[in-house]
Specification:
With 336 residues, the chain is an alpha/beta fold. The protein has 2 domains: 5-102 and 296-335, NAD(P)-binding Rossmann-like Domain (Rossmann fold); 104-288, Rossmann fold (3-Layer(aba) Sandwich). Helices cover 38% and strands 16% of the residues. The strands form 2 sheets. It has a 7-stranded parallel β-sheet with strand order 8-7-6-9-10-11-12. The radius of gyration is 23 Å and the shape is globular. It starts with a strand and ends in a 10-residue tail after the last helix. Mean pLDDT is 93; it is low at 321-336.
């Protein structure tokens, strides 16, 4: 392949997977950190002649597709293509890849950690105690409490398994489509599965979101659905910020119509209030982490390795196809 192919990796993702990106596993690549903002990233692609990019959750809507050449790859460091315009990429002849399944355990663990933190008031107890206060609070045990898992895919099912088998919670699953109830009970510990959101959350102490982000699920948890949760329930979201109408969530929390919210993802990141006077950070019953559910050392390394493997595979396929096109095999009369 000649000289090494330059891959630009957005800064946050480069830092998370530094052990891999600093010394790419496939020797034909050189990785360099780059800004995540689209105009700056596109300019650097042109300036340095980068072939591929590895990106996170930033939205890319135009300049990046114009800067990259046909056959380039936009490799997502993570799951899904929320920030990537697949139609634009296809029109520009750019391939897209992501790293599914690798984040499941880490995200599920974080969802459980947020639920435990909320139940035992750790977000209040830890800073108060470090500040010299000695003010024990009475928490809640999770055993025998009810958890509603909204979205029973790989991560949601893993959360259910940990909650049911590890914490002895009763877990109700809400799945948009019918599921094999017996298998879900046996394998993951669901007590039952329903397609009815209101039924799933009716008696839930905790509600954990695990839906994909797409036009159909945008603001899935709106004012009407929030009103179906118990006033003492806690919302857990480690999925996608766009699933929640943050203005409606603020209003429900501020009015005491919801017990609390533990959030790792937000519609705008870094977090910004969705409207003036609707800052979730100002509420005492909100717990926030900075979109770090998947950020464990083990997962970051695996995701970086998979992202680079995706680039290598795409290039390998491209070069093999070029070899075929340049050979006599496809041109010979016998194969026409």
């Amino acid at each position: 392949m000649g000289s090494r192919t330059l891959v630009l990796v957005t800064q946050l993702e480069y830092d998370r997977g530094r052990s891999v990106f600093a010394s790419p596993p496939h020797g034909e690549y050189e990785c360099a950190p780059a800004p995540a903002e689209e105009v700056a990233l596109a300019a650097l692609v042109r300036e340095r002649g980068a072939r591929h990019v590895v990106v996170g959750t930033e939205r890319y809507r135009g300049p990046l597709y114009e800067a990259l050449g046909r056959g380039s790859v936009i490799a997502r460091y993570g799951v899904g293509f929320d920030g990537i315009s697949l139609p634009r990429a296809t029109a520009a002849g750019i391939l897209c890849a992501n790293t599914p399944t690798l984040l499941n355990d880490a995200v599920a663990e974080h969802a459980i950690a947020l639920m435990l933190t909320a139940a035992r008031d750790l977000h209040r107890l830890v800073p108060a105690t470090l500040d010299g206060q000695w003010a024990p609070l009475i928490g809640r045990q999770l055993g025998q409490r009810r958890l509603a898992v909204i979205g029973c895919g790989a991560i949601g099912s893993r959360v259910a398994q940990a909650a049911a088998h590890g914490l002895l919670m009763e877990v109700i699953g809400c799945k948009l489509h019918e599921a094999n109830q017996e298998e879900m009970r046996r394998k993951y510990g669901f007590s039952r599965i329903t397609t009815d959101f209101a039924e799933a959350v009716a008696e839930a102490d905790y509600v954990s979101l695990h839906l994909p982000s797409n036009p159909a699920t945008h603001h899935f948890l709106n004012a009407a659905r929030l009103a179906q949760l118990r006033p003492t329930a806690w919302l857990i979201n480690t999925s996608r910020g766009a699933l929640v109408d943050e203005v409606a969530l603020h209003d429900a929390l501020a009015a005491g119509r919801l017990g609390g919210a533990a959030l790792d993802v937000f519609e705008r990141e870094p977090y910004q209030p969705a409207a003036p006077g609707k800052d979730l950070r100002a509420l005492p019953n909100v717990l926030m982490t900075p979109h770090c559910a998947s950020s464990t050392a083990e997962t970051c390394q695996r995701v970086a390795q998979r992202a680079m493997a995706n680039l290598h595979y795409a290039d390998l396929q491209r070069y093999e196809m070029m070899d075929l096109l340049n050979s006599d095999v496809l041109a010979s009369p016998e194969t026409e």
